[in-house]
């Protein structure tokens, strides 16, 4: 019979000795408390990032806060909900390192887009590119596109 | 086939921890991912590929948004809701975010009760997760129809500003919504398998000859949390930016 039982961290009813369970294919079982804590934390972080928008925080502070909350939430989900915290490093690295390549794409994309923006404003001018519809409706928000 | 034997000789050889373990695992016989059912490793690799798909979408969105000389429509206003005559910014999206996070929470409980072989509780939490997922999709349908029919937003242009807004919005949220919808369907399938006792009887699933175990609940959970994870990024870079 396959050992699908989880690694019982708490005093849950494991019916094989911890030492014997070491090399089995194991499920992830952890005390419920940690899930509830992370769940609550995700709610708090989401509320905070919503409040950033609600109170019209602008400029660099806005981007900093949004990105910090985003990364914290992502980290909590991957680490605890997806159990990366308890996996063996061989898999953690195999899954989490490749996405770092995307930073290259991000940098290339940002550089290229800045250049496109520059050429557009140089050769077409801002006036020609104005929308047909009413004027920009958000004077309080600087055009974020140029902030990169 | 006895699935325990798939971890082979590792039964007797203790696995090295840390970086040493990484080298040992990768240079070992048979399999690099120790102590992980194959389905879970494959799900992770699928999710890795999905990460690249969504990242490509988000990065191309960034590119068109930076390069446009036309003002970008303000998401805070576009996605606002009027409550009692007061316009609350981004309210709909905030509610959708909380719904999805809650569904992640119920999913984690389902996985936990699954490993305890508590059929009824696992079933209830899986179904609750599916219900929250369906709620999310429903709200997204509401959001789409609002944007299409009332705001006149199209993939090729819109009256609010930059033409690229519609294309980015429909592409990114559409792809994410599709993922959620597929997730809801599979959640229901897994829930039924759990309640019917398929996993206790180790009946193989419809796409595999392998015996069903409660690990499929965790694998399902990985997919579901990933959907939530993607939403975290969409929420931050598309709606809050």
Structural overview:
The complex is a heterodimer of chains A (148) and B (241). By secondary structure, chain A is an all-alpha fold. Chain A has a domain at 97-126 and 141-148. Helix content of chain A is 57%, strand content 0%. Chain A has six helices and no strands. The longest helix of chain A has 23 residues, at 32-54. Chain A starts with 17 loop residues before the first helix and ends in a 20-residue tail after the last helix. Chain B is mainly alpha-helical and 241 residues long. Chain B has a single domain (16-240), classed as Four Helix Bundle (Hemerythrin (Met), subunit A). The N and C termini of chain B lie far apart (52 Å). Chains A and B meet through helix 2, helix 3, helix 4 and helix 5 of A and helix 1, helix 2, helix 4 and helix 7 of B.
Question: Which descriptors apply to this entry?
Answer:
heterodimer; A: 148 residues; 6 helices; 57% helix; 0% strand; B: 241 residues; Four Helix Bundle (Hemerythrin (Met), subunit A); 7 helices; 2 strands; 66% helix; globular; disordered N terminus
User: What is the terminal-to-terminal distance of chain A?
Assistant: 57 Å
Shape of chain A: flat
Spans of at least 5 consecutive residues with low confidence of chain B: 1-7
- Look at the structure and give the CATH class of chain B: Mainly Alpha
Bulk shape of chain B: globular
Can you summarize this structure?
Chain A has 148 residues and is mostly helical.
